Amino acid sequence: MSFLDMDERLVALLEQVEFNRSPLTDIKHCGSCEIGLIEGGVCNAENVKVLQEFRANCKTLIAVGACAINGGVPAMRNHFDLKDCLQEAYETGIGVTNPQIPNDTELPLLLDKVYPIHEVVPVDYYLPGCPPSADAFLQILGPLLAGKEPVLSSDHLHYD
Amino acid sequence: MTHNTITIDGQEVPFEVGQTIMDAALAAKVYIPHLCHYPGLTPHGNCRLCSIEIGKKSVAACTTPAVAGQQISSNTPAINAARKSITQMLFIEGNHICPSCEKSGNCKLQAMGYFLGMLDEHFPQFYQRRKIDASHADIVLDRDRCILCDLCVRASREVDGKNVFAIAGRGTEAHLIVNSSSGKLVDSNLEVDDLAANICPVGAILKKSQGYDVPIGERIYDQHTISEIGLQESIAKESKSDDN
Fold first, then answer.
1. What is the pLDDT of residues B30-50, one digit of tens each?
2. Per the omega criterion (within 30 degrees of 0), is the bond before A23 cis?
3. Contacts of A149 in chain B (CB under 8 A)
């Protein structure tokens, strides 16, 4: 969402780029792209597949935000065994009715832990922050679109 | 008269006999990155952030005595790259989830990451499972964020005149323990105004009920670099010693 904080600057950006798979489009599979921006950690089998598809199709892959970079808040479940998390949420937790752990084949299987994306595929650049600011996005995307090496300035370097 | 000076990155720095390289550098307002050094406490050389080179030898500035004529390299791309790797290792060894941490913005580990331009943690995460101790009325101990700097151990023994903390275990098993009959903070004599309760550079020892008194974005390292604060701490300590 912080990507949208670019506000009117998105218009100028759109003159240079075309969105492929994104929350702004209804494209189901990522096609060949120059730049892929990935947010969030890797927590289930579908995340792994999507991430691998992005890596295969994007020349440059950028890990965006704290969760993509080190697992972030969702990785706090790594403190517990997956079985205990599921039992607490769906069987033994306060207020649970009709207790059962969901097991539909349509649901992606959860991984044992939440992983940062660079532990699953190689990553080219990191854009930290929770979330990174619109200015931080532009500081990375601007030079990349001009074929230059991006450098995040210290005033945009934040882990929170 | 012999000149008691060392040279750090080409700059002459005077020292008094008995001073470490770190003490001499800070007194001369030359910042050497550090996390486990605190002016006035016995140096331990735990964090290795203050690694410097004398000739080709790498040593910790906080534990190495200054000796006349030492030619020291500190602020070089290679040494700072090593410091960044050390910082990344400190991050992945614990569970440093900055967005969920009360200490964010006041955390020296985080500030060190900013100072060294750390964008990611590079190494695979350990995701260690460590115990929280929230038994004390005023203080919480969250071992997830402990970097084993040993500052609380030394502060308690050397300044507070108590012996509340210790490091037990070795290697990845090393962890902070509380010297009380139950092993819990509630049964220790730690008090909220003790230096040991206030010295933690990260969010491992926190005072309760004041986590967000200062909003995120307006905190120390949102506005200053760790080099500025590191030098200030040293100056504050010096003027305090002069008063005594």
1. 999 999 999 999 999 999 999
2. no
3. none
